[in-house]
Design goal:
Layout: E1 5-12, E2 20-28, E3 31-41, E4 46-47, E5 52-53, H1 58-84, H2 90-97, H3 100-106, H4 111-124, H5 132-153, H6 165-177, H7 183-202, H8 228-236, H9 242-255, H10 261-266, E6 272-274, E7 280-285, E8 292-296, H11 299-307, H12 325-339, H13 349-359, H14 366-373, H15 378-405
Antiparallel strand pairs: 1-2, 2-3, 4-5, 6-7, 7-8
Family: Belongs to the 'phage' integrase family.
Organism: Salegentibacter echinorum
GO molecular function, one term: DNA binding
C-alpha cells in the first residue's frame, strides 16, 4: 500500500482587502485534500517556492513557526495513522491533523474581521437600534485600529487572541500621538474597540478579557454655552442671507428646547401634543439613548415653529427644514462671527445653553431639567450645575471688585 504523501502550503483568494488565506494541501496516492489554516497574508509577503512568509519581521517569524509546527504535526499524524494499519486517504490525514481541539485552535478569529462583522450589523440597524453617528464612530474606530496594526505589526490583521494589555495601551498612545486625538476622543475610540473584544470574549474566541486591567478615565471638560446676553444678541440679529437666517432660527429653537441635532432633525408633528396644562409640549424619544423627553414649548420656540409651518420642506414627518449636520455647524460659525460671539459654536452648544442659561439659571429645578433633556440619571445633568457654580464664582469676583472700589465694609467693626 502506497503511504508516502506530499504536502504544500499555498495561498488562495486575495480579492477582499488584498488578503489571501494560507492553505495546506496534501496529496496521497494521487488524491488531493486541502484545508484553510485560518491565517491570512498579502501575496507580496509570500514565498510560494518555500511555502513560507518572506522577511524577518516578528509577524513573519510567528507565522513561519506556526507553519513549521503544522508541518511537524502532519508527519506525526501520518505516522500514527500508519501504526493503526488501516487504509486512509489524504482527506483522512487532514481530518486527523485538524482534530476538534486543533481545528478550533487553527480556525481562530481575526480582529478586523470581527470588527467589520459588528459594524455591518450596526449599519443595518441604523434608525432602529443605532443612530447614524454611532455607526460612523464605529467605522472610524475600526479605521484607527487597522492603521495601528499596519504601523505596529506590519500586517493587515491579527488574530483577536493576540490583543493584550500592551496592544491596548499602545493603541491609546498611537491615537494621542500619531492621530493627535484629545484624551477624551482617544478614550471613546478605545471604548468602541472594547465592544469588539467583549464580543470575542462572550463567544469564547478568546479565553481572557485583555481590558480587565484597563480603566477608562475621561477628563471633565467644561461645556461652553451662550450667556443670556449672547443669546439675546443672536435672537435680535437680523440676517438677510436666507440660509444663514434659517440656521440661526433652528439653532435658537434648540436653545429653547434642549433638543440635539438628531432629535430636531427627526422631530415630527405627532411628537408635538397638547399637555395637561393646555399648552403645547414636545414628547419624543431621544435618538441617542431612547429615553423619553417631555419639553413644554416656550414662546420663542413656538414662534419659530409657526414661522416655518408653511415651508415647502415641512410636512408630517419633519417639523423644521433642518440642513445636514455638517452644513449647520459650518453656518453657525458664520453666524457667531456676524454676532460678534467669540466662541467655537456648534449645534450641540445650543443644548448646553438650554440646560444652563435658559433653565437652571432661571431657577428651574435640576430634576425637571434632567427630564426635559432626557438624561438617564441626574448625575449627567449635575455637570451643568457645576458650570453654573463657576459662573456664580466669576460673578462674585466682579462684585468683590465693585464693592472694594466703593470701600464697602472697610470701616465696619467686628
Amino acid at each position: 500500500m502506497e503511504t508516502n504523501f506530499f504536502h504544500i502550503f499555498y495561498l488562495r483568494g486575495g480579492i477582499k482587502n488584498n488578503l489571501s488565506s494560507i492553505y495546506l494541501r496534501v496529496t496521497l496516492r494521487g488524491k488531493r485534500a486541502a484545508a484553510s489554516l485560518g491565517r491570512k497574508i498579502t501575496a507580496d509577503l509570500w514565498n510560494s517556492s518555500a511555502g513560507r512568509v518572506k522577511g524577518n519581521t516578528e509577524k513573519a517569524k510567528v507565522l513561519n513557526r506556526y507553519l513549521s509546527k503544522i508541518e511537524n504535526d502532519l508527519y506525526l499524524t501520518h505516522q500514527k495513522l500508519l501504526e493503526k494499519g488501516t487504509k486512509f486517504s489524504a482527506q483522512d490525514l487532514i481530518d486527523a491533523l485538524l482534530g476538534k481541539d486543533k481545528k478550533e485552535e487553527i480556525q481562530e478569529k481575526m480582529l478586523l474581521e470581527i470588527f467589520q462583522e459588528h459594524n455591518d450589523r450596526v449599519n443595518r440597524l441604523v434608525g432602529k437600534d443605532f443612530a447614524a453617528g454611532t455607526a460612523e464612530r464605529y467605522r472610524t474606530a475600526k479605521k484607527h485600529v487597522a492603521e495601528y496594526i499596519k504601523k505596529e505589526y506590519k500586517t493587515s490583521d491579527i488574530p483577536v487572541k493576540d490583543v493584550n494589555h500592551k496592544f491596548i495601551t499602545g493603541f491609546e498612545y498611537y491615537l494621542k500621538t500619531e492621530r493627535n486625538c484629545a484624551h477624551n476622543s482617544a478614550i471613546k475610540y478605545i471604548v468602541n474597540f472594547k465592544k469588539i473584544i467583549r464580543i470575542a470574549f462572550s463567544n469564547e474566541w478568546i479565553s481572557k478579557d485583555p481590558f480587565q486591567n484597563w480603566k477608562a478615565k475621561l477628563k471633565v471638560v467644561d461645556r461652553e454655552f451662550l450667556t443670556e446676553d449672547e443669546l439675546q444678541v443672536m435672537i435680535a440679529k437680523e440676517i438677510k442671507n436666507e440660509r444663514l437666517s434659517l440656521v440661526k432660527d433652528i439653532f435658537t429653537f434648540s436653545c429653547f428646547t434642549g433638543l440635539c441635532y438628531a432629535d430636531v432633525k427627526k422631530l415630527s408633528k405627532k411628537e408635538v401634543v397638547v399637555g395637561f396644562d393646555g399648552n403645547r409640549w414636545i414628547k419624543t424619544n431621544r435618538t441617542k439613548t431612547k429615553t423619553r423627553s417631555s419639553i413644554p414649548i416656550l414662546p420663542t420656540a413656538e414662534a419659530i415653529l409657526k414661522k416655518y409651518a408653511s415651508h415647502p420642506e415641512v410636512n408630517e414627518k419633519h417639523l423644521l427644514p433642518v440642513l445636514s449636520n455638517q452644513k449647520m455647524n459650518a453656518y453657525i460659525k458664520e453666524i457667531a462671527d456676524l454676532c460678534g460671539i467669540n466662541k467655537n459654536l456648534t449645534f450641540h452648544l445650543a443644548r448646553h445653553t438650554f440646560a444652563t442659561t435658559v433653565t437652571l439659571s432661571n431657577g428651574v429645578p435640576i430634576e425637571s431639567v434632567s427630564k426635559m433633556l432626557g438624561h438617564k440619571n441626574l448625575q449627567t445633568t449635575q455637570h451643568y450645575a457645576k458650570i453654573l457654580d463657576r459662573k456664580i464664582s466669576d460673578d462674585m469676583a466682579v462684585l468683590r471688585e465693585r464693592l472694594g472700589a466703593k470701600n464697602f465694609g472697610k470701616n465696619a467693626k467686628g
